Task: structure prediction
Amino acid sequence: MENIIVEVSSKFKELGLNNKILKVIEELKFKEPSEIQEKSIPTILQGKDVIGKSATGSGKTLAFAAGIIEKIQAGKGIQALILTPTRELAEQVSKSFKLFSKYYQANVLEVYGGVSINPQIENLRDAEIVVGTPGRILDHLERRTLDLSKVRFLVLDEADRMLDMGFIEDVQKIIELCPQERQTLLFSATISPDIENIANHYMKHPEYVEVASHVDPTKLKQVLYDVPNNLKFSLLVHLLKQEREGLVMVFCNTRRNADMIEKNLRRYALNAVVIHGGLAQNRRNAIMGQFHSGEVGILICTDVAARGLDIKGVSHIYNYDSPGSSTDYIHRIGRTARAGKEGKAINLVSPRDFANFRRVCEGIPFSITHEPIPQNLEPLAVRFEMSGREGRSGGFRSGGFRGRSSSGFRGRSDRGDSGDGDRRSGGFRPRSSYGHGGSRGGRSSGQYGRR
Result:
């Protein structure tokens, strides 16, 4: 295979990639390297530590995989460990590694929770590259079924999300169990003080690489609706029925809200699926297959489940619940208005969201248009489930919920409560444009625990 003849862009060849990788790139019909690939691959091939500031979908997996695969030696134990925040991202990265290593002898294994650990234990014996979530990696380490003593490459992918999800201690434990003589690659959409702390403690003179956002502000339209909570779901249905083209992602802060919205959208003849950390992995895989294929056009999701998924063709982003920080907001809207296509981000802001949404907007470098609620908006009844002392389950209420806020900013928000029956008070008046900087508004994504 060393005599492989390839015909790819001269820019890919100039990066210093091996012919076997170039052949795969040719077969995948990649025309030009992405910005993160162009800036980081030569440095990674030189064996240097790298911090890459890059969002999901920027092509960073090829950037770090290319520099690792060609240095892996078959049958020499686990030599590369890639940590990811979610199961979906672990599967996605593992799939990419298997694809890129087509002409190499490298056994790639994904390791995450929510599935039986026994097959993983068996397959770890032959693996050279392991892609996994922190909790399950630690489970294997505690069982002594995972040996990191020969690891030469450590990758922290979506590092900011791992830390936001509360995995910082797990990540540190894992890093400390890896050999000190290794190459460490860290990729993150944002560089927080926690990220800098990890870099200072565990990386050796890292090269810093940053790429521009993939969101094209000239193609992205952002709107805000100041809506009473009892009309929030009704407005969502109205808007979804008005614009039926393209793929739609609806973001919630809680599993309960996500489930509620998916069930009720189906009641109103809108074909939707839901994905969050409470679903079994095989179910999550099936749901993503439906959405990727276009079989279902509306995906209801929490930040935890959606982060790291590379979904193409998303035309609309709905923030049913306001995100907890400007960083999370940018992650959400970054899934549309890409590759020269137009996109739209719709924010449904109810009274309890106002203070948080103002804080979120401080870090948003795009303009948001305030839209009036449609005059022909029809209030819809929402079916919901009750739990607790009432002993009741199921019921209807016109327009919305009572109880705690549907925006779900309390506690671990991928597990939180839903509902908000407060009366409308005041209103949100966005500025025509927002400056840079911003502040963190708390965690919005929740955490899986050890998965």
